[in-house]
Amino acid sequence: MQLFHNDYNEMCHEAVLKKMVDYASFQVNGYGEDEICRHAADLIRTSCCDESLDVHFLVGGTQANLTVIDAALRPHQAALGAVSAHINVHETGAVEATGHKVIPLASADGKITAEQIDSALITHWSDSAHEHIAQPKLVYISNPTELGTVYSRQELEDISSVCKKHGLYLFVDGARLGYALAAKGNDVTLADLARLTDVFYIGGTKVGAMFGEAVVISNPALKEDFRYLIKQHGGMLAKGWLLGIQFEALFEKDLYMQISAHADAMADQIRDTLHSLSCPFLVDGITNQLFPILPDHVLEELSKNFTFSEQERVDPSHRAVRFCTSWATKQENVDALCDALKKLL
Amino acid sequence: MQLFHNDYNEMCHEAVLKKMVDYASFQVNGYGEDEICRHAADLIRTSCCDESLDVHFLVGGTQANLTVIDAALRPHQAALGAVSAHINVHETGAVEATGHKVIPLASADGKITAEQIDSALITHWSDSAHEHIAQPKLVYISNPTELGTVYSRQELEDISSVCKKHGLYLFVDGARLGYALAAKGNDVTLADLARLTDVFYIGGTKVGAMFGEAVVISNPALKEDFRYLIKQHGGMLAKGWLLGIQFEALFEKDLYMQISAHADAMADQIRDTLHSLSCPFLVDGITNQLFPILPDHVLEELSKNFTFSEQERVDPSHRAVRFCTSWATKQENVDALCDALKKLL
Amino acid sequence: MQLFHNDYNEMCHEAVLKKMVDYASFQVNGYGEDEICRHAADLIRTSCCDESLDVHFLVGGTQANLTVIDAALRPHQAALGAVSAHINVHETGAVEATGHKVIPLASADGKITAEQIDSALITHWSDSAHEHIAQPKLVYISNPTELGTVYSRQELEDISSVCKKHGLYLFVDGARLGYALAAKGNDVTLADLARLTDVFYIGGTKVGAMFGEAVVISNPALKEDFRYLIKQHGGMLAKGWLLGIQFEALFEKDLYMQISAHADAMADQIRDTLHSLSCPFLVDGITNQLFPILPDHVLEELSKNFTFSEQERVDPSHRAVRFCTSWATKQENVDALCDALKKLL
Amino acid sequence: MQLFHNDYNEMCHEAVLKKMVDYASFQVNGYGEDEICRHAADLIRTSCCDESLDVHFLVGGTQANLTVIDAALRPHQAALGAVSAHINVHETGAVEATGHKVIPLASADGKITAEQIDSALITHWSDSAHEHIAQPKLVYISNPTELGTVYSRQELEDISSVCKKHGLYLFVDGARLGYALAAKGNDVTLADLARLTDVFYIGGTKVGAMFGEAVVISNPALKEDFRYLIKQHGGMLAKGWLLGIQFEALFEKDLYMQISAHADAMADQIRDTLHSLSCPFLVDGITNQLFPILPDHVLEELSKNFTFSEQERVDPSHRAVRFCTSWATKQENVDALCDALKKLL
Question: Closest residue of A to B62, CA-based?
């Protein structure tokens, strides 16, 4: 069975594992207060072209989301996000469990617009009963989104502007960030993210690491006491240097971008094959996630040799499904999948 | 200025005030553990035809909603409600502040259906990743709804059945319950509510009392330790007998139903007038809230003598607004409003 | 039976009730946004000699405590208070339910000192692992305390200074504030409280009102969005003017101080009687609460005609109990109690 | 510098790392739903002599504590623990952040007794105002405790009995469990823990693993929906099999007990040396943590070559400090430390 149902089915890139083994006999201080973490943070600051950034290493994405949002909001404040946002649908109400409402905005492709945000805020403040309504204070977007789409630099500039206008924090969930940055057609850089957001994170779990997300904070208000919040939410890894090692490996020699580009290239091959077969897509994307709409009988055949995840039923005989590539995807597996698709469609 | 913008702009019915004055010189035990509260609870049990019910008196509606829902749910569980549900839009995220997600269901008229609930639960449990999704465990409906509509007995039977099928609690917010029970065309009784729900409340604040909501619990699982939760959420009134006095006054001689019927009759006069003038409505209703769609210039004229609340803009020259009657609405004020409408339309 | 077990067993002072009746036929805007509340707030600002104060009327003490503390703290921050603080022992974990730890400081008489606070903060910040410890950010004191003791002006000055030194908020729970302000030997005024604290409240429930606490905020950081927090915690009374009426009555003609002085005078008579009978006390106090240590057999006799509350067992044959007077205590009842004590001791 | 200040300064045992490398090229399903985790859980069930246990692998101790306690308690319920309990002092209020009070019980050596628990519960339920007090529902103990002491089997039996008597859950934090189980003088087994508790966890982070704690649940009420709570609190590792691998390595060939015994033996050597030098201890213990009381000048000398952690000042010239050994402690380092102690004392 060849696994395409998500992008976290392999342990880690060999360079990450090698570095892990290299450090195995060291004695290191705990809780991320060590030289390895400091070096990894420096590498990320350099990649972001901003030496003033705070960098914290957390274990996973839900943990990063709930910790950042809880750190940013007062009790009556809420996060705005796409109706399909990971925090709205796939984190078991983790943000609500910290006491905060997630206010969903309509979205067909996983993205939201500066206009939607502006409109939501104008509506809030013009309501004479606004004190009876959760106050929007943070905008959450994913890049790439849960549907594999990416924001252009202009879109991020616009969202950033409207956030500044209304005093909102802008937070970018980058669980799959590499796959956006390395995608053909993308024009956003890490430096753009550092410049345009208040806080974002660089996903490691899905991009070459065993686990780990690097939270990057530019807004001083969000930097204060952030480590207390990590600890309180159970996210302070005793052996924090395990995270430092992995991000050191990923950011030392541009490995993060290289392996992301590989995943995107693998996805492009499948995408091109599907396009050439006139297969429709639920959403068009340029990253490592593909959402083709396929006949049930084709999916049944495919499922004998390949895994994919279910997205939604489109009509009585067709479903949209998700295929993911990753840093670990092998050419031979992509070839096998493309061959199978050609045979079946 | 004659106030029609909501139904809590008068202190209380004279019988409530008189009884308050009558009790003024008594010494009474605190925290609702007194004879007056016990008597008021007995009166409500009798009205509900069920001696096994637990009755607790709380000060207000948001407090009742957040206390009941927090008492009912484990941390990962969520409340299902209409997208327009009071808990979803007008309580500053109070339910989320207790840690629980509110999952909105589409609704044009403020009501949700048994089918919607069934479908939501089937979707949840059939998702292989359901542990990543907040688990629906309680259904919240308002009767009448925030849009003035009411549930029929059959609709409640159906919703109750589907809740039992899926192990969900059914909770009815009755902030304006009297105005539903007394409405022409309603076929639901207090006994029906006690029989079909796990918990509901009888609103006093908007129906003749100074303040106060009587929470009625039939499900034993929800009865346990409920007073701890009232206290924890700041809802345990030191002089609890103030609530007992008011519900005693409202339920001793059927006053609750009489004054509710008055409000509905007053609303019916305005509704009939608007119908006779061919005025369209945002939502049809039978209770004390009316949502006519009126031209801006008419609203401007009306606003010189009458208050109403804004609902939504319908087109560039028309808005839906809300007029409320209440137990305190005077015939002369209704006449004045109807005359004004006839003159302007 | 004559009730001395607490100070909230009577409805309200007659002037409060009279004003309530006077306003009964008015139409007033909801949620505390009305002229009566504004006037009551003005009266309080004047009493505090500070026109810049924000004044909010809440229904009860636990509600006031949890709302203020939740508004003031970020998630990782904690409140410091005496081990006997109401928030630590008698609010069903209400503060913890908003996510915040209460850090108890040792106290024999219900008070804490500037030195204790200073020491706690120095300990916190000098711990290299302070990020693993809840961060003290607010000092909670009650005045009078739960044991009937009061803070002197100098003590408040010292506590205020140490709070400023460490960037802590100072919050005074004034559920029984009148009984402190009117006590013989007290040198603290409302103006002192407004000047030395960041936020405090003036208790109405136990001092002449039916219910209601006036939260007075001087620190601008705590003023922001406070009404959102009131609403979110279920504390925004729909008919907010009911609170305004009561505080108007209490602060119009110095009634609050007059009735407080009455309660203290009644307590002084009982205290003097007990002293003259050489009765020991658990704690010495000057307000309306007395904590004499009495033989079990005396308490048994007393309990036939008087109520009191249990405090703690002192030795196999003696218990400390609590007698409370209030604004409503009658001279004849005090006489009866003193006579009984003289007969039994 | 030789590190003795804690027991998590080395990456992991070589067998753990080797197995990690062995699995590196596999494709595995996410979120702990894989064969490796199932096998590791089976090994633990076998070690606990109970096939009915649920086993969940979490990343760290604070995460395990807050998730278990939040899963177990209703909102008004509290955890009882020693005043020195990790959840009370070193988790940044993580339990309170889930809404629950930690009620501290006095303890000189880190342990609490069945009598203390019994007394706390009798006090709670006999208080007529118990609804105003957080309700104790769970007992939290650490074994070994934060002060290196261990519970005997009889003590656990007694605590378990009193918990059953009062309907309390018993939860054992086993962050350093191996060092208790392998200690000379210990008579408690994993099977005892499974039999006597409702839930406990087996610490990996401090006992040979890179990270990871195995939560073992015997009480069916705590089993229900536990994975939802893991996810909600950000504890569901995407590549859950990383945890399975480590516990497989630790439990396949009794490695967990062997390496724990090594750490205890290393500690015994230091302990014996200190005893032979007549050094007093803050607390006597038998596990890998030692709390000697040493003169400041000795500590200053020692600190040039060895790390230790500060515990508390005992008198103007002496401090209690903590030395930790671990699975990774080398004989040569212990020898060096013992030699230094002999020279300095």
Answer: A132
